[in-house]
TrEMBL record:
Gene Ontology cellular component list: plasma membrane
Identification of the protein by name: Ferric-chelate reductase
Lineage: Eukaryota, Fungi, Dikarya, Ascomycota, Saccharomycotina
Membrane topology according to the record: Multi-pass membrane protein
Residue span, Ferric reductase NAD binding domain: 550-691
Gene name of the record: FRE6
Signal peptide bounds: 1-17
Residues covered by the FAD-binding domain: 448-543
Domain (Ferric oxidoreductase) ranges: 287-404
Coiled-coil intervals: none
Amino acid sequence: MHKPLLLLTWLISLASAFNIKLPHTEKKDRLGSNAVLACASYINTLKWSFDNSLVPGFYSTICSYSPAFDTWSLCIFNSLTDQVFPTDNSSFEESLGNVRNTCSFVDKKFSNISLEQYYLSLNNASSHALKNYSSVESLSTSVRVDRETRSKWVRAFHAHAYNLDISSVYGAYLSYYFVIVGLIAVFFHMSHYNGLNRALFGCRIVNYIRGRFVLPTFLVDKHANHFNFLNLEVFTGLMPSSLEAWIIIGYSLANIIFLSVSYIIDPYNLIFNSHLSQFTRLLADRSGILAFTQFPLIIIFTARNSFLEFLTGLKFNSFISFHKWIGRIMVLNATIHSLSYSLFAIVNHAFILSNKQLYWKFGIAGITVLFVLLVLSLGVVRKRHYEFFLYTHIILAILFFYCCWKHVKIFNGWKEWIVLSLFIWGLEKLFRIWNILRFRFPKATLINLNTSNNPHDEMFKVIIPKHNRRWHSKPGQYCFIYFLHPLIFWQCHPFTIIDEGDKCVLVIKPKNGLTRFIYNKILQSLNGKLQLRVAIEGPYGPSNHKLGDFDHLLLLSGGTGLPGPLDHAIKLSRKPDKPTSIDLIITIKNLSFLNGYKSEVLELKNSRSNVNVQIYLTQQAAVAKGANARDQLINYNDIMAELTNFAHIGNARPNFSNAIDNTMKNMPPRDSLAIVCCGPPVLVDDVRNSVSQKLLDYPERIVEYFEEYQCW
């Protein structure tokens, strides 16, 4: 768990040793810079005896024409001394940097204006500046800007610069929102270690909140299972759980508030043509900066980060849910930014001119890439073409970051959000590579389990020897498996495995893509067995449920969700301080899948295991026609005979709601119960809602629900 922190510390130390300077957005709302720009803008409105067509640029007159430059330096000095002690010239001297930067847009030679020249122009203006110049048609000498005019223009630039700074602050607050959410999650999760969970989850008020607002599905009875919006399959997706939904709603409301407050509007419209022009520019800046500040969060919540899962107890699919919705809010902010700037350009009759600017072109490219990325992230694409979605997502994300970098390059700010995001992304990739290398690359044995030749019974077992004996996974954890075949070695899929000390075991039901390709290779091999090198990345997921501390344990599994609950039952049955009762309920179509974990299930036959095993078969076993039918039937009967010696066998779907109700009703009042569930999406959603309802029915019971199903 500490490895990512060590790697992060090492990278920071390396950056420090090589004196690598990261981009940093300086504070925009400073009196010096406001005074420089305010005085420059006002002086540009005056009529000077200077043909600025000879030196193009907005600031060409004040930078190239001495009387205008002298007026500028005097105006800056007076604006600064309006606010600070008159004998203090440090602010005036510091403003020279802003003067150089402003004039460098006219000609690079102006970036070398010396402090001596700066003071000389101030002294010239102080001695010769005109006070009354309103009637002069063509100015050829410096003038003295009155205090009221200076103040109006400085306040106007303060309003604009303040918006840039407060936007960055509010963007940081949006990130702090998830820090606070994480700290609350850490508090509740770590309560398992100090026994506080018994007091917390035995409280009627807490259980009412959990049963009503935390555990159940949100709006529809689906969380693990996909739902179709407006009954259109193209708009299929996964609905957040209630807890995830309330967190996302809170984040969305915070974003709306931060988009809506703390604007300072200049009543004189000195910088902008109208109040509409002024507000669209402020909104454009605010929304764009808020979008930028969310980049690191979007990357963090895509990382396979076992450390954050360990601290908070939140699952990876919760992180993915946050990633999706933060991304959608970011797209909304970016859209507001684009539309507001377009409206601003139209109102100011500068749309055609703006289209020629490089930052504008990259802005258009960035928002276009973003919308393409959003469309290719729709649930129907992820569900049907996951590999296509994954790699296009990565490529488009990199292209989007590049466009954003070029978009803000001229503004000298906000690039640190991109750098931080890419740093997190690179650090996570290094950690994943290390995770793969430490398991090494053993040669796994892949065995076909389908003896009936029935397509519904297609399954294969993977037995992976462990070359690194210090590598361990805990019950319920999952790993990403890479099958190192030349045609598909870069693809990986997550599977829950059972760690048996010297080997890892998993059973896979082939679908499309990777697993179907591997299954076909097994069928082509001799005797239905295949040797193939694999790589394992992981383990990830919950590793500290502390299930052994509960008095009662209810393990609910269905179909391919069996490995986690089964592994929990096996490991806990070996401990001397195991729960008083352990109930393992297995729901499968027939014994074909269970046959893959036959040795593991039969380990629970030991009378000392204290595990009450219930197996429910929802379909009759399919028997092949032909020469192997008799052998298959004998094998089926042998398994049934071994199972009936210690397990209850049923031939219908179990009522999980009744099982939960009976367990909660019959256990002693102050005993604790842990319910662990993994299985098909429909089963998981049904159990989630059942547990939520039972918490409302039995609010004094100490019950915790652990869902090990992973949504991708």
